Amino acid sequence: QVQLVESGGGLVQAGGSLRLSCAASGSIFRINRMGWYRQAPGKQRELVAVITSGGTTNYADSVKGRFTISRDNAKNTVYLQMNSLKPEDTAVYYCNAVVAASPGSYLELWGQGTLVTVSS
Q1: How confident is the model at residue 1 (pLDDT cuts 50, 70, 90)?
Q2: What is the mean pLDDT of the chain?
Q3: Contact yes or no for 27/101 (Cβ under 8 A)
Q4: Once rounded to an integer, what is the mean pLDDT over residues 80-106?
Q5: Are strands 10-13 and 91-102 parallel, antiparallel or unpaired?
Q6: What are the distances in angstroms from CA 67 to CA 1, 11, 61, 98?
Q7: Is the per-residue pLDDT at 93 higher than 90?
């Protein structure tokens, strides 16, 4: 069974930085897309950033220039470096990955979520 475990959330002042990590563990054949989503109170979950297995990235307009997504394929880990944080970045951040435990058998997985709180 494959699972995603996130770490790195917390409380930070506006203008500060945080780095989120998400490691996939278990029986893994291949990981395709990995990404981060977030859900603020009273709002729908939204895409923050995604990265393909080849390293192509895509960001929400609201975080472009401030957040950077990266991955370490050897460690099955995706990172989200968040700089110049704003109060509106406050949300629960969820890791997402498309993982195959065997050839051709892909599942979309979610982490448990990690809370990021940005104070003004």
Answers
A1: confident
A2: 96
A3: yes
A4: 95
A5: unpaired
A6: 30, 17, 10, 21
A7: yes
Give CA separation, 81 vs 18, 70, 74, in Å. Answer: 6, 8, 19
Per-residue pLDDT, averaged over 61-88, amounts to: 97
Find where tokens 């506006």 sit: 14
As a whole number of angstroms, the distance between CA 15 and CA 51 comes to: 25
Q: Cα separation of 99 and 76, whole Å?
A: 10
SS3 string of 29-76? Answer: CEEEEEEEEEECCCCCCEEEEEECCCCCEEECHHHCCCEEEEEEHHHC
Buried b (16+ CB within 10 A) or exposed e, 35-64: bbbbeeeeeeeeebbbbeeeeeeebeeebe
Q: Which two tokens stand for residue 41?
A: 């109170």
CB 47 within 8 A of CB 57: no
Q: Is the per-residue pLDDT at 104 higher than 90? A: no
